[in-house]
User: What shape does this take?
Amino acid sequence: MMAGIVACVVLLSLGAACLARSRSQHLSVETLLVADRALPAPMLFILTVGEIYSIGSIVAFPAGLYTHGISYGYWFLGYLLLAFPVGYFVGPAIWERARRYDACTVPEVFGRYFGSVVFERLTAWGCIAALVPWGQFQFIGLRATLGMMGLPGAPAAGLAACAVIAFAYVALGGMRASTYVAFLKDSLMLFGIAAVGVAAICAQYGGTGTYVAHPVVFRQPAVTDMVFAVSTTVYQGVGFYFQPSVTPYLFTARSAQAVRRAMVFMPLYMLMYPFAVFATYFAIRSLPPLRDVNGVFFHVAGMLLPPWVVALVMAGAVLAGLLVLAATSLNIAAMMTRSIMPRLAHGHPRRAINLGVILFLVLALVATAHAPAIMLTALNVSGYVGIQFASLWFVVLLDRPVPARVAGGGVVCGAVTAIALFASGLSVGGINPGFMGLLVNCAVVFCPLWRRKRVT
Assistant: This one.
């Protein structure tokens, strides 16, 4: 029954994508990538939260709390709360720059601002380096979700089916199709997380006596933990909307005012996180230790809810992974065909983009077999590279006369610093490695401007 319900929901999502295609008079490259820059504020809100709150909200967030304790929740929720006010101010400005340069991808904005095709190509490679782990993150989450369903041949066959469905979303309508699917996905995710959270509260405090509560002693965060939480909140909150995994969705808006209106309601979606915390706390307090921490949320759901509700929870998680996977593969393919190898797309741009999507999905599917058990590593690498593009956006939005080689050098230095600190395990007072990398990045980019002003 569980597999049947999930399959029905996935088919319903394909119907939503077909509906989006039927309402588009033509399917041009602009329609595919930026929905003709025509989404009003409500649809932009649905698309953006649909892409931001990925499968990690159900899989990675509870797993992080379960593994690392409450200090993980501090920065995870903190940076989201900071990101939305920042997005309220920078989001409309990003949309204005994309419209000014008639850009459908992030590298096109940079290449046309700096007036360099080579720089556009290099930033495209950098954006892809940030997006590939993010796409891999979705596949790993889908594998964890499908593994909980206990189907024969899963998750290998299930992951292959997920790749086909993600491609179908792209082929049917691109970003516009993602908007229609996001509405269904958001509804199921909110319902599923709230249902599990409420069930956990009732089981823990309802007085039924079914579940034995074990004493739990939470480790109090050390000073370095709090330094990490604060630095991560600032680093990811400020840089959130400058990531290649988030920025392109702003390009789809009808106007700068639509972006601003959508940002006002973004924090409302965070109401689901307290329920995820309740479910994780129940697992820590009332369940034996779990070997697969990525499945902690589904373990709680399976113990407390009837099978049909668990199936809807899993369907929401599957749609979350599929939706972000489709958009990520579309962005990667667009950068490959428009910025890195534009000659291959000459005459048949849509076909080239679809081939790029297929290539990425196949490679990511193969790589998933060798992915780490904990998904946070892939997410960290994506953030360490992606947020370094914030310095380029600072230059573009502030219209500063920075040479392309200096701007590119800053991004490279920042990414190398962040990844080196993360890989070596070297701690600088508990400060997030990505924050250190961003400081180095901005120093390389903006210190020459400061010195030039002093000389003049």
